[in-house]
Structures are given as structure tokens and as C-alpha cells.
Automatic annotation (TrEMBL):
Residues 1-25 are annotated as: Disordered. Its cofactor is FAD. This is Ferredoxin reductase family protein. InterPro entries: FAD-bd_FR_type (IPR017927), Fe3_Rdtase_TM_dom (IPR013130), FNR_nucleotide-bd (IPR039261), MRET (IPR050415), Riboflavin_synthase-like_b-brl (IPR017938). PANTHER family: 1,2-PHENYLACETYL-COA EPOXIDASE, SUBUNIT E, NADH OXIDOREDUCTASE HCR. It is a multi-pass membrane protein. Residues 243-343 form the FAD-binding FR-type domain. The keyword 4Fe-4S does not apply. It is found in: Membrane. Keywords: 2Fe-2S, FAD, Flavoprotein, Iron, Iron-sulfur, Membrane, Metal-binding, Oxidoreductase, Transmembrane, Transmembrane helix. PROSITE patterns: FAD_FR. The chain crosses the membrane at residues 34-53, 73-93, 114-132, 152-176, 188-206, 218-238.
Amino acid sequence: MSSLSAPTVRVPGGRFKPDPPVPARDVARADRRVRRATGVLAALAVLLALAWWVDGGGPAGLLGGGTRAVAETGRLCGLLASLLLLGQVLLAARIPLLEQAFGQRHLIALHRGTGIASFAGMVAHVGCASWAHGPAGVGRVPAGFWQLTWTWPGMVAASLGTVLVVLVVVTSARWIRTRLRYEWWHLLHLWGYAGVFLALPHQLWAGREFTTSPSRTVFWWGLWIAAVLAVVVWRVAVPVLRSRRHRITVAAVLPEGDGSVSVHMTGERLRELGASAGQFFVWRFRSGRGWPAGNPYSLSAPPTARSLRITVKELGDGSAAVPNLRQGTRVHIEGPYGRLTPRTRTSPRVALIGAGVGMTPLRALAEKFLNESADVVVVHRFTREPLFAREFTRLARERNLHVVASPGRRRAAGSWWGADAGRADDLAALRARIPDIAVREVYVCGPGRWTAMVRRTVLGAGVPERRVHVENFG
């Protein structure tokens, strides 16, 4: 037994109770099958597009050189950019099957990677097409772009869509994104959907890979319609229907440590949401003019049939308004999301490692795992005041939760421990505090760079990659 007042705790050895609720390993296998199937379908779509480009004389055009080679290069870049744009939309559509199989961290990484590649392809497509159709001279590309915009079907909408996509890409650059308030960045990012759906139809009307046979037309229109439906269903219709059905309202707003507050909410038939400890929702509190801008917050306690709880720290306009919420405020929800859940656990021993407000989902997971008779150790990094100090102390006293506190600033730029770790390297410090770390299921949550350091240390301690689950906040 331990409390947050003790900076280091050695977890005792000994026997552990069997843990019947541990999910069967077929959960992990099922998720792997979904990931593989998604990769196979994506590869087949790319191969099919390439086959149609080859069938349409693409390689011959490239070998012919000159203007035709430039045009064929632009055509190929446009095809691949189209597929990647639609894939990017599907990755961000919050499709439950993909959410469970990949998790938010991997989906965001894939979304970002496909976004960069699709943007590069789109720029190359526009540049090559403009050069190929423009008059000879210094202003060939601008003149060609102007001519295409006003003479080809759908090009006015495509040009506007391109501008919107460029705006999203520019504001997604790290050095700009970190300087924008989340609410503004989120609003700008939503315009990316409009940009995609304005940019693609011109290909469906004018591109010969899209129109030369009924099968090709059905494929491209079907893919485009699937992307639209995914967004409409999972980002709009389902959240609206769930919010109306469950009638969630604010019950109380209570202060927590480290400048955070917990929002306690009540609702109807909340178990039907299928939410689990460790997951998050996108919340919209119907209070003030900015309520349509949703904010993602994790559950900080296991959900029940009548109650939900989140814990929020002020990081932007939306979170700054949370402490002033009034009892009875209506709440709109989107979710649940996230793979940092008990369904991924395959070991009766668990380690939860978090920093700052990243402790929010881990606090919920700690109670959930203790309810399942798991052996749980929590590593809690904090700078000034520990979050959930009283609750962790109570769980340590009453439920045999083991808590390792690591207070203060990080001891060095390349370390994720506080000064309490002394001169030992991160791996030695971790093994000293959790000797059996290699046999535990590990859940990590905190800032992106910090979680990356923790993940490397945990893997170095011998924990298999399949038993390391990471979620970032920021």
C-alpha cells in the first residue's frame, strides 16, 4: 500500500489472484485482422487505379516526352491524390470498426501521413495540368490554370476546394498549430471536408479513368459516396441521435488538483453508449456562443448507467469556460472514442503511467482494473500538485493500488522522470520501482514527446509491443 506522499514505491512480489475478466487474446487477433484487411483494401484500390491509368495509355504518354509526358504525370498524381484524399476522410470519419482496431493515435498518424502525400499529389496534379494546357511562355502555369478553371467542368469548385485544402494543410503544420487556439484550429479543419468534396467531383465528370466504362464510374462514385456517408453517419447523425436519446446534463462542477475541475453529468440509459473507462468523447456544452466547437475530454471515472465524469484543465477557450458551467446545462456528445480501454488487456498485472492531465483516463482505468481484481501500479508524474491525490490515496488504502509518485520538473530534457529518480537512467529507474514491469500490460497517457520517451523505456524493459498502449493529449 502506498500514497502519493511517497516518491518511490517498490511493488512487492508474491501471488496474484486469477483474473477471469481479462479479455481473450482473440480480441487482439480480431483487431489485427481489421488492420490487415484495411491495408489490403487500400492497396487493391491503388493497384486498380494504376491498372486503369496503364490501360488508358499512361506509360506510353510518359515515354513520348514533352507536353504529353507532363500531362500524364499530372493525371497519375491526380488519381493517387484522389484516393489518398478519400482515404484521409475515411480515417477521420470515426468509423467504430477502425477506431477499435487502430486506436486514435495510429489513426491520427495515418491521417496525417495520407494528408501530406495527398497534398503533394494534388499540387503536382494542378501544376502539371496547368503547364500542359497553358500557352508557351513565362506565365504558362498561371495561364493554364486560369484556362482550366473557367473552361473545364467542375473546375471552379475544384479550385475553391484546393484553396480550402491548402488552408487546412498550412494550419496543420506544427509551428502554426501550436500557436492557434484549439477551437480556431478545429473550425478551420472542418473546412477540409468541404475542400475535399469540392475538389473531387471534377474528376468524376472529366477524367477518363472515371468515365470510360460503367465499372470505373461505379467504383469512383461508390468510393466518393461511401466517404460522404461515413462522415454524415458517424460525425453528424449518430452524435445527434445519441445526444437526444440520452439527455445528458451537467450535475455538478467540482475543483480538482493542479487547476483542474471535474464535471459530473447525468443522463438516461448511458450504458447503451458502450463507453468504457479510458475512452473519450467530444463534448459540446450548450452554454455560450462557442458551444458548437467540440472539445475532446477523457472519462476520469468508470461510466455507469446514470453518470459520466470528465476532468478538464484550462488549455483554451472551450476548457476555460468549463468551470463556469451551470447545473442543468445540456450536453451534446460525439463518441466514445479511443483504444486505451480494458478490452486490450491480456495480463492480470497492469502498469498505468501518466503525466499531468494525462492521468484522467488512467484514473478511470485504475478503478476499472481494480474492480476486475487486477494487480495495478500507477506511475504519476506531476510538476506541482498531483491530480486525483485524494482518490488515489483512497484506492491505495482500500483497494491495494500501488502508487509511484514522481513530482517536480523533469530531471533532464531526455528523461521522463522527475528529480526523484536520481542519477539512474530511465530504464533502471523504472525497473527499480516496478521490478515486474516486463510481465505487465502498460497504459501510457500524456504529452506526445513525453509518451514517446516512456514507450521506448517500457519496450526496453522487455514489455512486448502488443502490451503497450499509448494515447497522447495536446
